Amino acid sequence: MTRDYSLVDVLSMNGGTGEHSYATNSHYQRSVIYETQHVVTMNIREMLEKIGFPDCIKVTDLGCSTGQNTMLAMSAIANSIIESYQQMGIKNPPEIDCCLNDLLENDFNTTFKIVPSFLEKLIKTEAKGKCFVSGVPGSFYSRLFPRKSLHFVHSAFSIHWLSKIPDSLESNTKSIHIKHPYTPNVYKSYLNQFKNDFSDFLKMRSEEMVQNGRMVLTFVGRKASNTLSKDCFQVWSLLSDCLLDLASEGFVKKSEIESFNMPFYNPSEEEVMEVIFKEGSFEINKIEKFDHIVPYKIEYEEENDQDQSVHMEASINHASWARCITEPLLVAHFGDAIIEPVFDKYAHYMAKYLSVTKHRPNMTLVLVVSLIRK
Q: Taking a C-beta distance cutoff of 8 angstroms, is the pair 174, 237 a contact?
């Protein structure tokens, strides 16, 4: 029987540091954080030139998840702040209030264990003792901070997670998301939910941020021309096929699959800009976009492209990545007995996909949006 649960109570990445944890499998997200650090540095420097150089700066990572990625982002933020003060000849660095936010089920403890090493590595010894890390549990689609208290907001790979399952998906019985071919109302339902959520996100931040504060948001995006692409929502299409296989084998009820949809939407640049302009609290400083391949723990070479062992190893790694971001949701809806069989199937489907298409899994479009609080 389908279980009753609240999305905000179960939406989280796998905790801990085990084989299927987010901390172990989030190498794709980590590589993008490295690649976008220059955007963080630029925006912090420009922000300080506008607001001056206060004695205390409050920053946050919204949707921080668990593990080293959020501390990598915070390191870039803190070091950029300290370097900016040094370049201005200000001897005493500011106190930095680093706030890590995620939903209640997030594994904050694994992250907090990394905090001592993060503080130890801050550049220049005079900065030590002036950076304070805290956790802020709650949904970033609601208010989290006092009015006009935030100077800099960072969020990576979080805002494409929706606050709720979109309405009017009763006809979406053969997929857990948007799967080609699909009816227009399914796509419209997901798009409307994203627009409502992102607008709420911007409104909440506009109340919490100081004037001329900065925000850097990183999305998994989608090219506008890819709206009907078979590969656009590939992860969810493969997971749908695996679940439907299990239903045909009698492992799960078909009705359970029909009532399950992923709360995820990767927007196009045009969709993101439309919401920002309509909400009106922020000026777009810059939008950068680039294609990025999910990194695996093996290196691809053209001559190995038909090597089935290479495909299988990559597929197992991809399955672990998909598992670390979906397992809590799947367990809440189907129970934990489904996890091993569904991701065994996922790895085999991915291996077949690689073999047939003769290329790596499709490139994802990364959107990096920097905003200025008006």
A: no
State both tokens at 190.
């997901």
Q: Look-up: residue for tokens 């803190």?
A: 78
Q: Do the beta carbons of residue 373 and residue 206 sit within 8 Å?
A: yes
Sole residue written with tokens 């239903």: 247
165: left (phi over 0), alpha (psi -120 to 50) or beta: beta
Alpha helices (H) in 121-268, listed in sequence order: 184-208, 234-248, 254-258
Spell out, as residue ranges, where the chain has pLDDT lower than 70.
1-5, 123-128, 180-182, 224-233, 292-311, 356-363
Dist CA 334 CA 348 (whole Å): 21
Residue bearing tokens 């130890």 = 120
Q: What is the pLDDT of residues 218-263, one digit of tens each?
A: 998 887 655 545 555 678 888 999 999 999 999 999 899 988 999 9
| CB-CB contact of 29 with 156 (8 Å) | yes
Measured distance CA(133)–CA(158) in Å, rounded: 20
Burial of 64 (0-12, 13-18, 19+ CB in 10 A): buried
